[in-house]
Design brief:
heterodimer, A: alpha/beta, eight-stranded mixed beta sheet, 12 strands, 22% strand, B: alpha/beta, Rossmann fold, 2 domains, four-stranded antiparallel beta sheet, 14 helices, 38% helix, 17% strand
Chain lengths: 353, 327
């Protein structure tokens, strides 16, 4: 599969009064075309910061302090480094080629704007010329180049988009305001905004976390269907290992600003390598749960003063002296499985020629 | 007090005709989507909300048959205080950041319920508070601190310590782990299991997370729009669910295992507003097997086999219908 987005040693820090929060510590990860990539980890591990870094929407006091974000908009052409791009380029990219579904639909929607107009904004910003062309063929009564005409055409597109998202009586919903809709419906609107321009990469940041089980099932099914027809790749950020197991092809596990392990979903769940992944999988109740859950002792570290070396070592029961000194480099194992842990570094050296 | 006596502690008839028995020493899980009345049920049981109709019966003195049950709903605030029932029925709330007073020392926070009930010397009090901290896995170092100095998991431990400070018999746990991370959630669940055995507690465990409730509870009640639609021993409910809503809930759980093959039943639509619930069976607007009868006549919660009750007109044929429609 050709690459779509690749981060190389990405570092994002937040300069707060309490000190520098080292939120992302040299993250290198690749998302290929056509893949649903799941990013799991506990709260505060940097999942959302990574997503926001990819879109370059890190706000003050945060800053991308190093590394590259390579975006491959065309399959054969070379990459664009998003870290170096000016704001103008990024404005054309956000919501167009890369778009994001935010966690909390109540906060993501504008309460004093009808949902139809909020979705139409995407078309009006990114698809102006197309709208102009289509508008001249459909309703020739209104003079050309008028804003009203463009808006009308945009709203027509919104209605057909909502129909694709299985929203009942979409013609009426277009004129509603967010407070008039249920939680699941609001999340669909947020999805519609993100999908409006058929992005190449859709970032879903905890898109279903605040929803009920039956609504979550609806939204996940919708995302999977859309993935087949409309969008190329999805980056699904969640803390729910169950959601990852059911929807993703590849999974990255993050802990305290580090990417510990990346593997295909089957491989990761059946053969987890990093001690943190193993502990995390043992800590969630499973369908066939028997006996006690194994908890991880201690707490997630503070990222202002993260532990030296591997950030997991204070909670790891297999920690070695080396773990306290330097952060382990990525080790590439069989089955496209990458892990950052000293337990596997010797092994790979032995197998290498 | 005995964990194996299994005598009736409470019989609740709250919200819209809810009849639930909670037995001494068990953990009854309550699941349902947001707004279905889980928390209201809990609050009504301990008298934080007033029941409009019906009885909440509490069987004191270790379920001794000679002592008549007390009706919490009829007692009123003053009566509750006088009878000392408050000490026996305690609650742990969902979010420990909001349920702990930010300006109170941990020491005072845990001492408060003890002081409200008895006169106790300061030395004894300190010993008791330290013992409680110890029970929930905290140490002497935490004695003189404020809530903001703790992580989410530790805060929830403090909330548990405060709830068990009065030696309660019955603990309501309202989504005690939903604000916590996965690795910490396991710590708290294990702590709660351990405390239940050690202190012979009875739990009412409210959650929307079905795998958590499967891990901790003995029996499970499924609620939908202010009604209990199904209640059964946990194992039985997961193996042979009867109500279509339970089927949909169970099939909707994302399972953290790969190669877990199962049919997925996706319901259409949202939960109707409880202000204006549908007539007849409240689930009929989303039920895939709705009949004309469901729209008019409300099904009653009827016992099927031992301990398995369900409120559905088509309960006999639901497994067959599910099989036909969803494979």
């Amino acid at each position: 599969m050709p690459k779509l987005v690749e981060t190389v040693d990405l570092v994002t820090n937040f300069y707060t009064y309490e000190g520098v929060v080292r939120a992302l510590n040299r993250i290198s990860l690749t998302i290929e075309h056509g893949v649903t990539f799941g990013l799991v980890g506990e709260s505060g591990c940097g999942k959302s910061v990574l997503a926001r870094s990819l879109m370059r929407i890190i706000q003050e006091p945060g800053r991308i302090d190093g590394g590259r974000i390579l975006f491959y908009p065309e399959r054969d052409a070379g990459p664009v480094d998003l870290v170096q791009q000016p704001d103008d380029y990024l404005r054309g990219l956000r919501g167009n080629q890369i778009s994001m579904i935010f966690q909390e639909p109540n906060a993501a929607l504008n309460p004093i704007m009808s949902v139809g107009n909020q979705i139409a904004e995407s078309f009006l910003i990114h698809r102006r010329q197309e709208l102009d062309r289509d508008a001249s063929t459909t309703n020739s009564m209104i003079p050309t180049r008028s804003k009203k005409r463009l808006r009308k055409e945009a709203l027509r597109r919104v209605a057909s988009l909502l129909e694709q998202l299985d929203i009942a009586n979409s013609k009426e919903i277009v004129h509603r305001f967010p407070h008039e809709l249920s939680g699941g419906m609001k999340q669909r609107i947020v999805i519609a905004i993100a999908l409006a321009c058929r992005p190449m990469l859709l970032i879903a940041d905890e898109a279903t976390s605040n929803l009920d089980v039956t609504i979550q099932a609806q939204i996940l099914q919708l995302l999977l269907e859309l993935k087949k027809t409309q969008i190329s790749s999805v980056l699904l950020i969640t803390h729910d290992l169950g959601v990852v197991a059911e929807t993703c092809q590849r999974v990255g596990v993050m802990y305290a600003g580090n990417l510990c392990e990346v593997a295909d979903v089957r491989e990761l769940f059946s053969n987890p390598r990093h001690p943190y992944t193993q502990a995390l999988l043992a800590a969630v109740p499973k369908f066939s749960q028997e006996g006690r859950l194994k908890s991880i002792d201690g707490n997630v570290p503070n990222l202002v003063t993260p532990p030296p070396g591997c950030r997991f070592h204070p909670r790891c029961d297999q920690a070695k002296p080396a773990c306290r000194e330097r952060f382990p480099a990525d080790t590439h194992l069989d089955n496209n499985h990458t892990v950052a842990c000293y337990l596997y570094t010797d092994q790979s050296r032995a197998s290498a020629p | 007090m005995g964990g194996v006596l299994r005598r009736q502690v409470n019989s609740v008839k709250a919200l819209d005709g809810i009849n639930v028995d909670i037995y001494r020493g068990e953990c009854l899980g309550v699941v349902g989507e947001s707004g279905c009345g889980k928390t209201t049920t809990a609050k009504t049981i301990i008298g934080l909300e007033d029941a409009t109709h019906g009885k909440i019966q509490y069987f004191p003195n270790g379920g001794n048959e000679k002592t008549p049950p007390l009706d919490i709903a009829a007692m009123g605030k003053r009566g509750l205080k006088k009878s000392g029932i408050r000490a026996k029925l305690q609650m742990v709330f969902q979010d420990p950041t909001t349920s702990l007073d930010p300006r109170m020392l941990i020491k005072n926070m845990i001492a408060e319920p003890i002081l409200a009930l008895q006169r106790i010397g300061s030395r004894d009090l300190e010993a008791r508070v330290l013992e409680l901290l110890n029970t929930v896995g905290l140490t002497k170092d935490h004695y003189l601190r404020y809530p903001h100095e703790f992580s989410g998991g530790q805060r929830q431990r403090i909330a548990v310590a405060r709830a068990i400070a009065t030696n309660p018999e019955f603990l309501i746990l309202d989504e005690p782990t939903s604000a916590l991370d996965v690795s910490v959630q396991a710590q708290i669940l294990n702590l709660l299991k351990q405390l239940q055995q050690k202190l012979h507690l009875t739990y009412l465990f409210i959650t929307h997370h079905l795998l958590v409730v499967k891990y901790i509870s003995d029996r499970l009640a499924v609620m939908y729009l202010g009604k209990v639609v199904e209640i059964a021993p946990t194992e039985e409910l997961f193996r042979h669910p009867l109500h279509p809503y339970t089927h949909a809930l169970l099939s909707g759980i994302p399972v953290p295992e790969v190669g877990h093959q199962r049919k997925r039943i996706v319901l259409c639509g949202d939960v109707p507003s409880p202000v204006n619930p549908p007539d007849g069976c409240r689930f009929h607007t989303r039920c895939p097997f709705v009949l004309e009868r469901c729209r008019k006549e409300e099904p009653l919660l009827e016992a099927m086999e031992t301990g398995h009750s369900v409120a559905c007109h088509r309960k006999q044929s639901v497994p067959k219908l599910i099989h036909e429609k969803f494979g």
